[in-house]
Amino acid sequence: MDSDEDFGMSSEEDVLEDSENDNESADGTDFGIDEPEPDLGYTQKEQVKKEKKTFDTTFKVYHPDDIQAQQDDLIDEVNMILDIRKEDAAILLRHFRWNKERLIEDYMDRPRKVLEDAGLGPSTTGPPKLEVIRGFMCDICCEDEPGLQSFAMKCGHRYCADCYRQYLNQKIKEEGEAARIQCPQDGCKRILDAKSLDLLVTSELQNRYHELLTRTYVEDKEQLKWCPAPDCQNAIECGIKKKDLDRVVPTVACDCKHRFCFGCGLADHQPAPCDLVKKWLKKCADDSETANWISANTKECPKCNSTIEKNGGCNHMTCRKCKHEFCWMCMGLWSEHGTSWYNCNRFEEKSGSEARDAQAKSRVSLERYLHYYNRYANHEQSAKLDKDIFTKTEKKMISLQTASGMSWIEVQYLNSASHALQTCRQTLKWTYAFAFYLKRVNLTEMFEDNQKDLEMAVEALSEMFEKPVDELANPKLKVEIMDKTSYCNKRRVILLADTADNLANGAWEWSNGH
Amino acid sequence: MTQKRISKELQECLTTPPAGIKVNLVDEGNIHNWNIVMDGPADSPYVGGKFQLLLVLPTEYPFKPPKINFKTRIYHPNVTFDEHGSMCIGILKSDSWKPSSRIPNVLTAIQQLLLEPVPDDAVEQGAAQKFKEDRKAFDKEARDMTKKYAK
Ligand SMILES: [Zn+2]
Ligand SMILES: [Zn+2]
Ligand SMILES: [Zn+2]
Ligand SMILES: [Zn+2]
Ligand SMILES: [Zn+2]
């Protein structure tokens, strides 16, 4: 199962991560597409060509039905191999945390002990059923009226059906327990099986029980994790272990489109490794007061001091009053940002002589932190603003269709551009946390160059993206946006591949206590 | 159905309570609140003391465990040294309580706790530390407190 389709990547992500745009005509026919291609723009063609990048993590998305089927398959296997009831096979598998091989091995060695430990001790009665027994008194409620329905699991501890029901209700509904519900008898470790449950409770409670069991199934397996998106019921399977996390950043994408880190569950934080992310977030929380002023949405024009509000993701600011053009992040001249000496992303270390005493040193270290935090926070904020714009994009696209006569498919390039902006800003944001902890060595400069290239491309695209609809209708701008979009995606791939390779080789050197 | 079970248990505890324990209702009209008087066990620094406890049976009893607190102050690693006198004992935790568990078992578990504190599962860290590091000093403190509060 290693074809890309099996990884459940959404088509948007395929477009975003594609680095092969340039060879489109050169090898577009090499992929065995026999039928005439539908005219869906370039989206589909590229999906076919998606290649696995070095920083891509292999994973699989499971929907609730798949998760149930997986459990059922394992239960069936154990049921056949060991020749035991299905409900007992389920209890054994849960006891062994779904490690089928170990269960079978142990069971072959010492079946009695395995059954006992799993809460399936020796049977004293036949198959469990509801029964009326003469002279029976329930030890829980102390009722003994004739005709009282009673129930016992295979351990033979018998209670009235009402008490059994109330007990199960308490365990399942109130305590959220399922896999470890024991017989109500004090000291009896017999585990409740699904068949006994079905005899006693409503289907509503049965469903809840199975829901809880599925939850423990996912939680018990190291290579399975729930998608953390609210309301999403999918689980992701990924083979990355905890000990691998200083060498890889395992980013996975659920079918619900949520991209997150399999290692820590946070939203996509490539290229920064989990541990660094944790440290950075803690530092930001600790220093939030010092850094608060940065997230302000307004700044003063560096030339005329009039207040300027930022309402899009683009960092190229033009003062309404004096037309001064500057960069929102560094407040420097914008004209310098398009040239080769753009260095908005790089923190210039002060020479040693300037930072001789402790006070100066701590000022430098604060400045350094603020440099990176400023840019980190700015991309986060810009991504939000870009997203606001994205929600307006669809409206734009509709009006664009009317203005230009383009079809819906033909205006999808704005959708792609918007996706590229968000994904790239998400990456850029984390490059600044990454850079904060990097020691200044030769590799760092290459990293900063990649960061700079991506950032410049993103800002340029962001600027085009905010153009009024009548300008967007211009076919020349459309081509430019499409080119810039694919360029941004390409730069992101280059940056991520480079950082991931060096991370895998342990080539990065860290500072600032990382 | 709860009433029948509680009445039966109460009857048993009134007529044949575990040794060193006396049971009566706080208020005759309410079988959910029990007043317990426990003698300090012979081989413990609590000997000679009479400790009052309040046992409350929730409406969901016996599907939920009873709540029990020391009303008399007691110097013990596993009982808070305050007006709550709360303790944390295994049998009353929801994952080990079973609806067939019985109140006399709870009471004897508490007697056992007075004989053998579990300092690793303590709610009073100071008492736990003293118990582990200087057993003599602990016993003396426990005896003094018993004299002060439980006579
Ligand atoms: Zn009953
Ligand atoms: Zn049993
Ligand atoms: Zn999801
Ligand atoms: Zn992570
Ligand atoms: Zn100005």
From TrEMBL, chain A:
Catalytic activity: [E2 ubiquitin-conjugating enzyme]-S-ubiquitinyl-L-cysteine + [acceptor protein]-L-lysine = [E2 ubiquitin-conjugating enzyme]-L-cysteine + [acceptor protein]-N(6)-ubiquitinyl-L-lysine
Record-linked PANTHER family: RBR FAMILY RING FINGER AND IBR DOMAIN-CONTAINING (PTHR11685)
SMART domains noted in UniProt: IBR, RING
GO molecular function: ubiquitin protein ligase activity; zinc ion binding
Annotated Acidic residues bias: 1-38
Protein name: RBR-type E3 ubiquitin transferase
Natural source organism: Mollisia scopiformis
Location of region: Disordered: 1-47
UniProtKB/TrEMBL annotation, chain B:
Limits of the UBC core domain: 1-151
Gene3D superfamilies: Ubiquitin Conjugating Enzyme
EC assignment: 2.3.2.23
Keyword Magnesium in annotation: no
Keyword Lyase included in the entry's annotation: no
Assigned keywords, A-Z: ATP-binding, Nucleotide-binding, Transferase, Ubl conjugation pathway
PROSITE patterns according to UniProt: UBC_2
Domain of life assignment: Eukaryota
Record-level Gene Ontology MF annotations: ATP binding; ubiquitin conjugating enzyme activity
PANTHER family: UBIQUITIN-CONJUGATING ENZYME E2
Name of the protein this chain belongs to: E2 ubiquitin-conjugating enzyme
Organism for this UniProt entry: Mollisia scopiformis (Conifer needle endophyte fungus)
